[in-house]
Amino acid sequence: MASNSRTLSAAADAGAPAPDNQWSSRLTFILAAVGSAVGLGNVWKFPYIVGENGGGAFVLVYLLCIALIGIPVLTAEILAGRRGGASPIRSFGIMAERDGHSRNWQAIGWLGGLCAFLILSFYSVVAGWALAYLGYAVGGDLSAAGGADDVGQAMGTLFETLLASPAALVGGHTIVMAITILIVASGVRGGLEKAIRWMVPGIFAILAGLVLYAATASGEFGRAAHFMFAPDFSALNWDAVLVALGHAFFTLSIGMTAMMAYGAHLQKDAALGSSAVAIAGLDTLVALMAGLAIFPIVFAAGLEPAAGPGLVFVTLPIAFADIPGGTIVATLFFLFLAVAALSSTISVLEPVVEYLEERTPLTRRGAALASGGAIWLLGIGCALSFNVAGDIRLWDHNLFDLLDFLTSAILLPLGGLLIALYVGYVLPERAVRAELAGIGPRGYAVLRGLLRYVAPLGIATVFVYGLM
Length: 468
Ligand code: PFF
What we know:
Largest sheet: none
Bound molecules: 4-fluoro-L-phenylalanine
Distance between the termini: 44 Å
Strand content: under 5%
Oligomer: single chain
Number of strands: 0
């Protein structure tokens, strides 16, 4: 299995049929990458940070961050993945050596692999909340809480009870990891591609239904659209700019080799720049649509948009209790959230599995089980940090918060910065041009400028801020 991608690219170059661990088409690759990008970041986090940071002006800054930093780094990451042709953790070392540079560039891969490991351990716990809420919606717990005298308090208690239960949190996390391991163990064509083919269209279909509902039934669509798109710059501060930039990384799944792994399975002749633009565009569309689905429902129930992380798990269920057909809407919403999270978790496990597959005698199944099992163990620590292990503090954070902080504030920006620098300065120009055939000299010059100057400066700012 080891040097698979390299031999495969050679086979594809020679016009051979696409092999088993290559995406069957560029469209499938785009779908998979969109599946990775679209997740809890778009549906859980984006709406609440928009709510907390005042709405329209924040959205504008976020869009600029995606365009000027997100898309160039995403392009660089996919490019490096395809160019390297090995598992992403090893690709940088192999490429650097091939081009006469130090093998130590492989550190970017190690950093990314570590980041994948840590992100998945806590992300899977939040994905477990989505599954729990799907269960609550179907089982009638949400409508029961909705019948309480004080609905707000009942929904708050439901969420607190979930967080206080080690069994519920570990159970949700275990189901998420088990599904993730099963899909990844089945390979690129047999597992990832099959899952993605129904997951991503499903995500868009449910979301479109929710937006349509919000637009027609809530009566507050106009207010939500105004909140999200009419910029009020007095509500914007420097902190908000940095939140927007950090989120651009997380939401595009960049800085930690997931997109490299997906890029490595892309055919050599598939256009890369336009793929990155399509992926970022669709991810942004989902984030905006999620806002347009959530805020009208929140406003219609007379609630505040700035509820923070509880927006989706407390505020939104309060609103669901108040609207006609709330149980169905709630079920669809949490199904959407769970599927979106799972199409992201598989992309985080993939680079770790590919590394083990290349470097150890483990089969793909064994590698998926070993790495997924280790992540599962660490995730149990994250789940327990909401209850029985809440008092265990490392640098003043519990384990969950520590991993969230370490990855978003340090590892993702650092990984993104190094990838931008590597592709901007170290990778030979002819290699970059060869990978980007088709974007034209002007497009190339723009991308190079963004990778060499704009992205490193912007990322360095987030990095410094994260450590302050
Ligand atoms: N992009 C995903 C989201 O917005 O939920 C999260 C994520 C997936 C981050 C994969 C990083 C990653 F490698």
